[in-house]
Structure formats: C-alpha cells, structure tokens
Specification:
14 helices, single chain, five-stranded mixed beta sheet, 39% helix, 3 domains, alpha+beta
C-alpha cells in the first residue's frame, strides 16, 4: 500500500502544490474547511485522490519513522470509528460527515465478517435429495404395486432449500467489499477478521451508475433487518464514491482537538466526570427579580491522584514554541477553573494541580515545563498558580482508546503532583 504522510495543519498553498487533486477534492467535499480564511488545512485521516494513491494526514506529535507512522495511521482510523459511533448526535444519519464515513466502512466490513455475502434461501426441486414431496411424486412418478397392494415409487420427488449468494444485493455487495478491501484493507483488517475478501469479475452487465437503482428495487422485497440495514449501508457508500470504482473515500476528522480530548478523558485513570456539576454557576441578579443562571464552566478532565485533584485541559497544539501554544485566554481560563474547584470546599487549595496536556511523540515535560504570569520586574505575580505543561505520547493514548483500557505504567500524572 502506497501511503504518503502529511502533517495536520499543512499550509494550503503547499498542499495545492504537492497534491492538487487532494486539495480539489477536499474543497469540493468540505468547502467550509478549505475556504475559511485560514492558511492551513485542519485534517487528520485519509485523503484518497483518484490516481494519486492514499494520502494520510497525521496529527501533531506523530512519529517520524515510516513503520511507526503506518501503525499509528491504522490505529487512528479505528479511533475515529469509535469516536463516530459513540458521539453521533440523535437523528444524524450516514451523511457526508467524514467521521461517519470511517464508521460506515467499518460497519460494512463487520457485516461481511459476521455474515458473509447476503444470501437468499431458495427452494429447489430435486429427486431423492431433501424432504420428500409426495404430492409431486404421485403426479409425476409411476407407482408399482407391492405384495400387499401398496404403491411403491422407485423415484421420489423431493425439495431442498439452498442459500444462494447470486441475488442482486449479494453481487453488488461483493463488488463493494472488494473495493474497500483493496483500498482500505490496511486499516480495516481487524473489522474483516479472518473472512477472505472476494475478488469478483466486474459486473459488465450492471454499470456502476445503475447499482443504487437496483439496490432500491431489491429493497422493496426485503423484510429481515440485516438485509435492510445492509442495503442502506451499500447505498450510503455509493453516494460517497459515486464517481469512481476504486473505493475512493475521504474519511477523517477536521477537528482533532475534539478526539484528543475524548481519548484523554477515556484513557486517563481516575477521571471524575461529576466535577462540572459541582462547580459554581454564573448567576445574574435582576433588580426586584429572581436570580437567573447561565451555562456554567466545563472542564475537560478532572482526575484524582492520591490526595491531589488534577485539572487537565486537553490542548491540541504542537507547543514547541510560543507561536504554537495556547494564548492568554486559555491560560486565564485554567486559573478560573482552579478557583472554582477550590471554592467547592471539597479539596484543599494546596492539593489542586493545573496542567495542559499536549500531544507528542514521547511522554515528557519539554520543551515547556510550565506557564506563569510574571510582573514587569520579572518576579512571579502573586495569586496566580502555575499551569504545568505535560506532553503525552499520541500512540499510547490512541492504542489505549481503541482497546478500551486505561493508560498503563504512566508516571507523569503523579509527577505533576510532586
């Protein structure tokens, strides 16, 4: 599999120079992302351009070694699938949203792994093979009398039922499974399992542009839920790759910061999800009226670590220089969070720790260790606690997230409290 890796936040002019077809396709599919006035492309995931192989955008903190990149890319797609399945809003179907496309491919592979090609149970007339059909035997066969006068039939007509995968749905499913297996098999293999991916001959008598119509016709006579769901997925796939027969699908996530936050919340041990309900809420007081509350504060992650409470803000920044790091608004917000946690009276003020969590190739505390507000005299401003900086390995977080487990052997959280 030929995969070219590019970093998230690639400059648009540079992308257009290196991958003009990718730029054109992203602009066509997600104009809001490409024509937003920003100089860079916010994208993590697959960008597959016709005739140009696979282009994959990696997030900040990704490894530089080729094998490690491929492994991370495969796991990132599985993370995007889980994120899509668990964070889809009510009423949201299989539309053009890119994370749902990844989940759609995984669902098609899962269906094929669990059930194979869709088959119909068909009745076949046979002789001496299956359940005897006495009515047909009496009509079509010659009877010979037995010694007691009973009729004896030398050939007994029978019926048997056979599962046939030659129906319309199965033949189109076979073509589509072959497409996505060829193009996306490098990351879909856990979803396909041990099921062998078919290699069918092209359906010359059924042009691709007619597949959607044929599936809709076939759906009218389907009743079982698996068949109806399968046809729905096949139609959604065809809608996304209407022009090609190469499995060309763009699937990824344009806001990796959302996935970064969710992955950290799911994998950091001892996260207390109830803290946002405990925090004080901004309240307006109208003269002579009743107090009116507005939406309160929402921390990303609050975790317990021994006797300490650690407020963690998932920040998707390179954080290699001040130009690629959180600005004063984000830093100030952390101070407010800390004061709010302390105001609940549930923790001692000297047992609250505040930190940003950045993605990195390796877990550590550099290049930045902490952020403090300094006076013009170069002394620390009193009353402002530092915001610590923690870099966490992207690969470790992604691996823990897709395997639904907590980060193991992580010493960085206790180290923040030391």
């Amino acid at each position: 599999m030929n995969i070219e890796f590019l970093p998230d936040r690639t400059v648009k002019n540079e992308l257009e120079r290196l991958q003009p077809e990718v730029t054109k396709a992203l602009t066509s599919r997600w104009p809001a992302m490409m024509e937003n006035g920003h100089e860079t492309v916010a994208w993590v995931g697959i960008a597959k351009a016709h005739g140009a192989g696979t282009v994959f955008f990696l997030p900040h903190g990704s490894p530089t070694e080729e094998t490690s990149r491929l492994e991370l890319a495969s796991k990132l797609m599985r993370a995007i699938v889980r994120f899509s399945e668990e964070n889809r809003r009510d009423g949201e179907g299989r539309g053009r949203e890119s994370t749902t496309l990844a989940a759609l491919l995984a669902a098609l592979a899962n269906d094929f792994r669990d059930h194979g090609l869709y088959s119909t149970r068909e009745k076949q007339r046979t002789v001496r093979d299956g359940k005897p059909d006495w009515a047909r035997t009496v009509k079509t066969q010659t009877a010979f009398p037995a010694s007691n006068g009973s009729p004896v039939y030398c050939e007994i007509s029978s019926v048997r039922y056979s599962s046939l995968a030659t129906n319309t749905v199965a033949r189109i499913q076979e073509q589509i499974i072959a497409e996505i297996g060829k193009t996306h098999g490098w990351w879909l293999s856990p979803y396909f399992g041990n099921r062998e991916i078919p290699r069918p001959a092209p359906l010359a008598q059924w042009p691709r542009e007619h597949w959607a119509r044929l599936l809709k016709q076939a759906r009218r006579s389907l009743y079982e839920s698996r068949a109806i769901n399968l046809v729905g997925m096949l139609l959604a796939y065809l809608e996304q790759s209407a022009e090609t027969g190469t499995g060309e699908v763009y699937c990824g996530i344009s806001d990796f910061s959302a996935l970064w936050e969710v992955m950290l919340r799911e994998t950091i041990p001892n996260v207390d999800r109830a803290w946002n309900r405990r925090l004080p809420v901004p309240t307006y007081f109208r003269v002579g009226g009743r107090p009116e509350q507005i939406r309160g504060m929402e921390t990303d992650i609050v975790a317990g670590c021994g006797e300490f409470t650690v407020i963690l803000d998932a920040k998707y920044y390179r954080a290699t220089s001040t130009g690629y790091s959180p600005r004063v608004q984000d830093i100030s917000k952390q101070f407010v969070y800390q004061r709010a946690v302390e105001a609940t009276g549930r923790v001692a003020p000297d047992r609250v720790v505040n930190a940003f969590v950045f993605p990195a190739e390796k877990t550590g505390r550099e290049p930045f260790e902490k952020i403090e507000f300094m006076l013009p005299s170069a002394s620390a401003a009193p009353g402002f606690a530092p915001v610590l900086c923690q870099y966490v390995c992207v690969g470790d977080v992604v691996d823990a997230y897709i395997n639904r487990r907590k980060l193991k052997n992580q010493t960085w959280l206790p180290a923040l409290c030391a």
